[in-house]
Design brief:
With about 350 residues, the protein is of the alpha/beta class. The protein has two domains: about 5-220, Spore Coat Polysaccharide Biosynthesis Protein SpsA, Chain A, CATH 3.90.550.60; about 230-340, no CATH class. The protein has helices spanning about 15-25, 45-50, 65-80, 100-105, 170-175, 195-205, 230-245, 250-270, 275-315, 320-330, 335-340, and strands at about 5-10, 30-35, 55-60, 85-90, 90-95, 110-120, 130, 135, 140-145, 155-160, 165-170, 205-220. Strands 1, 2, 3, 4, 5, 6, 7, 10, 11 and 12 form a ten-stranded mixed sheet that branches.
C-alpha cells in the first residue's frame, strides 16, 4: 500500500528538519512525503530543497490554516497514487518501524480505516501525550493516556479516533466522509478537526485501531503555543461545531447543557488556578481569554447555517444506531466530571 505522509509547515524549520531526518530512517518502503507550506519566511523551503530533495514541496503562499493545507496535501497524494495518507505534525520525530506498524492495523473486512499511533512526548519519551482520543458527552475530546506511563498502553486496542499529531486514514474512508471535496472541514481552521473527522467516520460505520508499536514522539504545541489566545478562540468555537454537526437528538441537547455547565467550572478553575482555564488565564490574562471566547461564540452564530446544512447531511448518511453511539461514550469516553480538569 502506497502511503502519502503529509506535513503542514509554518516556519519552525529546525523542527521540520528533525522530522524529515527521522522519516529518512523509516523501514516502510512505499511512501511519499509531502510538505504543505503555509507561507514560511524562515528559510524552510531552502533547507528542505537542499537537504531533502526527494520531498514534494507544496507552497500555499500564505497561512491557509491547518485543514486547508492538509486537504491540498491529501488531493496531491491521490494524484501520486497513494492509497492512504498519514497526517503528521511538523514537531514530531518517528521511530523507523512506526509506519509498518500503523499500516498493519488497517483491515477492510473489519472496516478499520483509521489508525492511532503511540505518541510520547519528545522530551519525556517514557510519558504519553496521546494514543488516540477519548470523547466526552459535551463535545470535547481528550488525549487517551495523557501524562501516563508509556508501558501502561502497550496493547493494541480499538479507540474512538486518532489524535491529529500522527493519524493514518485510508482513501476509502476519506472519500466516504468528505464534505463537498473537503476531507478535513476547513471551517475549523485549527484544532478538533481530527475529532470532527473521527465522528463523521464513526457515524458511517468506520473503526479506529491503536498501534502501540507505531511510536511518534511529539514536542507538542510548538507552533501555536499551548495556551495562547489563538488556541482559546479555536478550541472554544470548534467545540460547538463538533456538537452542531455530529451530536444528534438527545446527545446534542445533553452536550449543549453540559457545555454551558463547563463554563461555570472553567470560571472556578480560573480562580483556583486549576485545569486548562487556569493555565490559559495565567498565560494570556482574563481580558484576552474573554475576548477569545466572545469571538468564538460570534463565529458560531455566523457559521450556523452552514453547520446546520452539514448536520442534516451527516444525519441522513449515518449508518449506526443511537444505542451504538451511546455505547461509545462508555467504551471510548470520559464522564463530564472526569474530563473537567484533564
Amino acid at each position: 500500500m502506497k502511503i502519502g505522509i503529509i506535513i503542514v509547515s509554518y516556519n519552525k524549520k529546525d523542527l521540520l528538519e528533525n522530522c524529515l531526518k527521522s522519516l529518512e530512517k523509516v523501514s516502510y518502503a512505499n511512501f511519499e512525503t509531502l510538505v504543505v507550506d503555509n507561507g514560511s519566511s524562515d528559510g524552510s523551503w531552502e533547507m528542505a530543497s537542499e537537504k531533502f530533495p526527494q520531498v514534494s514541496w507544496l507552497p500555499m503562499g500564505h497561512n491557509s490554516g491547518f485543514c486547508k493545507a492538509n486537504n491540498v496535501g491529501i488531493k496531491k497524494a491521490w494524484e501520486l497514487g497513494c492509497e492512504a495518507i498519514l497526517l503528521l505534525n511538523n514537531d514530531t520525530e518517528v521511530e523507523p518501524d512506526f509506519l509498518t506498524a500503523m499500516v498493519g492495523e488497517l483491515n477492510q473486512t473489519e472496516k478499520i480505516g483509521m489508525v492511532a499511533a503511540q505518541i510520547p512526548f519528545l522530551k519525556r519519551k517514557n510519558v504519553l501525550d496521546s494514543c488516540g482520543l477519548v470523547i466526552t458527552p459535551d463535545g470535547l475530546a481528550k488525549n487517551r493516556g495523557f501524562e501516563q506511563a508509556v508501558e501502561l498502553f502497550g496493547e493494541r486496542a480499538e479507540v474512538f479516533c486518532p489524535a491529529g499529531a500522527a493519524a493514518l486514514y485510508t482513501k476509502e474512508l476519506l472519500e466516504d466522509v468528505q464534505e463537498d471535496g473537503q476531507y478535513l472541514d476547513e471551517t475549523f481552521g485549527f484544532y478538533f478537526e481530527e475529532l470532527d473527522l473521527g465522528w463523521r467516520a464513526r457515524l458511517r460505520g468506520w473503526k479506529c485501531s491503536y498501534a502501540p508499536r507505531a511510536v511518534v514522539y511529539h514536542l507538542k504545541s510548538a507552533t501555536a503555543g499551548a495556551y495562547s489566545e489563538f488556541v482559546a478562540f479555536h478550541t472554544n468555537r470548534n467545540i460547538f461545531f463538533i456538537m452542531l454537526k455530529n451530536y444528534q437528538g438527545i446527545f446534542f441537547l445533553r452536550a449543549l447543557t453540559l457545555t454551558f455547565l463547563r463554563y461555570v467550572f472553567l470560571l472556578a478553575g480560573i480562580f483556583q488556578a486549576k485545569g486548562p482555564a487556569g493555565k490559559i488565564h495565567k498565560q494570556i490574562g482574563p481580558f484576552k481569554m474573554l475576548r477569545a471566547c466572545g469571538k468564538g461564540w460570534l463565529d458560531v452564530f455566523r457559521q450556523l447555517p452552514a453547520m446546520l446544512k452539514k448536520r442534516r447531511l451527516i444525519k441522513k448518511n449515518t449508518k449506526v444506531s443511537k444505542q451504538k453511539i451511546e455505547s461509545w461514550f462508555s467504551k471510548f469516553g470520559l464522564t463530564f466530571f472526569d474530563s473537567l480538569y484533564q
